[in-house]
Amino acid sequence: MYLCRAEINIKPWKRLLNDLKEGNKRMGWMTRESYTYWKGNPSVALIRQELMKCNVSDNQDWNARVYAQVATSITRPYVPYTPMIGSEK
């Protein structure tokens, strides 16, 4: 069975590009604080669970902002197309 999930909260490219341009006008790249940003489902793989340990805590800040986001949409199983052979007429 093949499950296909679309990425969530991703804007169409033209809207995203406009938002990026507007953000660049408000604050230049050299004046920004550098952070690594990741958002995803940590239960998919062990390495992702390890990644969650890099998030900011009271004792350590690795400049990583890590968010657990689990898709809540309904997924449909992949059903392969089986072409009909011949005619049933």
From TrEMBL:
<dbReference type="Pfam" id="PF05686">
    <property type="entry name" value="Glyco_transf_90"/>
</dbReference>
<protein>
    <recommendedName>
        <fullName>Glycosyl transferase CAP10 domain-containing protein</fullName>
    </recommendedName>
</protein>
<dbReference type="InterPro" id="IPR006598">
    <property type="entry name" value="CAP10"/>
</dbReference>
<dbReference type="InterPro" id="IPR051091">
    <property type="entry name" value="O-Glucosyltr/Glycosyltrsf_90"/>
</dbReference>
<feature type="domain" description="Glycosyl transferase CAP10">
    <location>
        <begin position="5"/>
        <end position="75"/>
    </location>
</feature>
